[in-house]
From TrEMBL:
Protein's recorded name: C-type cytochrome, methanol metabolism-related
InterPro entries attached to this UniProt entry: C-typ_cyt_methanol_metab-rel, Cyt_c-like_dom, Cyt_c-like_dom_sf
Signal peptide boundaries: 1-24
Superkingdom in the source lineage: Bacteria
Keyword annotations from UniProtKB, A to Z: Heme, Iron, Metal-binding, Signal
Lineage: Bacteria, Pseudomonadati, Pseudomonadota, Alphaproteobacteria, Rhodobacterales
Keyword Heme tagged: yes
Source species of the chain: Rubrimonas cliftonensis
Domain Cytochrome c: 65-141
Length: 173
């Protein structure tokens, strides 16, 4: 698995078609960080994750995920990943789906019939404002789902790493 924010979209979409590795988490259970690279945190299976210091400082990528989520996702899925009457709580989806299934749904969309109405998640696979930051959005939602990160804008954040700027520039073109 690549460890950069600027994953080429073709590789990302191809990887999303693989059988997802479901690593369900429990709400309230912190995710174990296995390693960090240039301010970005990962689990032992190379899944992006979050880091929150004891003083509440979130890593830059999780903060970026908060910003991108609220720019692109909260209109349907509600503030802070809590869900709405229109779409499910993505903080729960991050816990229940596993990383690759989450990416596949975001990239390819999803349709299903609910008890009240048909449900449609549009595909965001060609939207750089989502896909260039998919790891960040996932880390943010994972932090919300495990209840390690409270609702609202994180009060403290780590500084933006130079590697983030380089990857963002490469992905956004």
């Amino acid at each position: 698995m690549l460890k950069s924010v600027a994953r080429p979209l073709a590789a990302l979409l191809a990887a999303a078609c693989l059988t997802p590795v479901a690593v369900a988490q429990d709400a309230g259970a912190a995710v174990e960080v296995a390693y960090e690279t240039d301010g970005k945190f990962f689990t032992a299976d190379d899944t992006p994750t979050y880091s929150i210091a004891e003083d509440g400082t979130v890593d830059w990528y999780t903060f970026s995920g908060f910003r991108r989520y609220h720019a692109e996702c909260h209109v349907c899925h509600g503030p802070d990943g809590e869900g709405s009457s229109y779409a499910p709580a993505l903080k729960d989806s991050a816990l229940n789906l596993g990383y690759w299934e989450f990416v596949a749904i975001v990239a390819g969309g999803k349709q299903g019939a609910g008890t009240d109405a048909n449900q449609v998640m549009p595909a965001f696979g060609t939207n750089n404002n989502v896909m260039c930051y998919i790891d960040d959005i996932y880390a943010y939602l994972l932090a919300r789902g495990t209840e390690e990160l409270p609702r609202g804008r994180p009060a403290k954040r780590a500084d933006k790493p130079d590697s983030f700027v380089e990857a963002e520039d490469a992905c956004m073109g």
